[in-house]
Amino acid sequence: MVGPTRYARAGSDDIAWAESGTGSPLILGGWWMSHLERDLEYAPIRSFLAALSARRRVIRTDPIGSGLSRSRRATPATLTPHIDALTAVLDDAGVERTTALAGSSGCPVAVAFAARHPDRVERLVLCGAYLDGSAIASAADREALTDVVRRSWGVSARVMSEIFFPDATPEEQRAYLRHQRTVGSPESAAAALAAVYAFDARAEAAAVRAPTLVLHRRGDRAIPLALGVETANAVPPARLAIVDGTAHHPWHGDSTEIVRQILTFDGVDPRLLTEPAAATTATDAPGTSPAGPLSEREREVLLLVAQGRTDAEIAAELFLSPHTVHRHVANVRSKLGVPTRSAAAAWAAVNLT
Questions:
Q1: What is the number of domains present in the chain?
Q2: Looking at the structure, do residues 252 and 324 belong to the same domain, yes or no?
Q3: Which residues contact 269 (CB under 8 A, 6 or more apart)?
Q4: Burial class, 38, CB count within 10 angstroms (exposed 0-12 / middle 13-18 / buried 19+)
Q5: pLDDT (tens digit, 0 to 9) for every residue of the chain, 353 residues total?
Q6: 33, 37, 42, 43: CA torsion to nearest 10
Q7: Cα–Cα nearest to 336, from 325, 350, 323
Q8: Is residue 170 part of a domain?
Q9: Which residues pair with residue 60 across a beta bridge?
Q10: Is 46 in contact with 13 (CB distance < 8 Å)?
Q11: β-bridge pairing 98-103 and 25-28
């Protein structure tokens, strides 16, 4: 079950955090415009978190000025307040040492946190990483995009979706646009984007001592691969893993491979994460992909997924917890060898109806 939203005090800020799953702790810092509650309403993030929570105690936070965190200021453009926020959350959660997982603008924060607090970081995983925000784009482009975000959240959300998730289907892009527009105001989004461009952890990188995995998609348009390579080269114990694809966020595209790499690096036996060799896909012809590998309960859940039901709706109908439904859906995807919830639903439409 996803735990309730809690608050950790960091200076004058109340940092929102929540947790799910059991096992060794893994803290996932907030990215540009995160929202602890609304992120769970977005299927790709929900599935990504469910897969991690099946093996780890996942602690999520919203940055200062974003989501449910309470602050009188916009997202700070310096690293120290964000490092203090992570420290406060870990203290509030009673966690002395953790794996730190970060994506995008969370990466320079995580690098600086690991450098300044080596006693708190067991391992470091960076997805779509950069160290110096000014290297992401030219000064003119950075200023122009921040201005568009501030003046027109609708237009900028579409621009961002084409950068972050360029290979999305029309349905996936609509879902992503709806999600982006619900997580914050134009003013908070513009301030958070300005912070993305201002972060600079280059001076901290060489001091990191925790084993580090830098995961980067080859065709990432938001943060070019060259910046991921630069990050891996700057962090002494880092290993670079280049993954095919163009999506920037780890929950888009082939998120199954991203989760596998994260959990394997974090010490999970890879045999527990291997999909069946005979897994089928949603493009198989009717009758060629029997649902034999699925349990009766998994078939029941999958049929409701195919009807467009949310996890909460499925949980209510079947008298299960939402977390249990998350696990059933994750198991179904693993057994069928499909990367997304929608692909599993398409498989069900062909093979179970």
A1: 2
A2: no
A3: none
A4: middle
A5: 577 999 999 999 999 999 999 999 999 987 888 999 999 999 999 999 999 999 999 999 999 999 999 998 999 999 999 999 999 999 999 999 999 999 999 999 999 999 999 999 999 999 999 999 999 999 999 999 999 999 887 788 888 888 999 999 989 999 999 898 888 888 999 999 999 999 999 999 999 999 999 999 999 999 999 999 999 999 999 999 999 999 999 999 989 999 999 999 999 988 777 643 333 323 333 333 334 568 888 888 898 888 888 888 888 888 788 878 888 888 888 788 776 787 787 777 667 75
A6: 130
A7: 350
A8: no
A9: 18, 28
A10: no
A11: parallel
Both 222 and 347 in one domain: the answer is no
pLDDT in tens, 231-273: 999 999 999 999 999 999 999 998 999 999 999 999 998 877 7
Instruction: Extract the tokens encoding 224.
Output: 């070019």
**Identity of residue 350:** V
Structure tokens at 324: 């249990």
Query: What sign has the CA pseudo-torsion 309, 315, 321, 327?
Result: negative
Neighbours of 287 (CB within 10 A): 8
Q: Is residue 241, in this structure, part of any structural domain at all?
A: yes
Task: Please tell me whether the overall predicted TM-score, pTM, comes out greater than 0.70 for this model.
Answer: yes
User: What tokens appear for 197 in the block?
Assistant: 């461009």
**Cα separation, 168 vs 164, whole angstroms:** 9
Report how far apart, in Å, the C-alpha atoms of 68 and of each of 46, 60, 348 are: 17, 12, 36
Q: Confirm whether 157 is domain-assigned.
A: no
Q: How far apart are CA 249 and CA 247, in angstroms?
A: 6
CATH number of the domain at 219, please: 3.40.50.1820
Among residues 272, 306, 325, which one ends one of the domains? Answer: 272
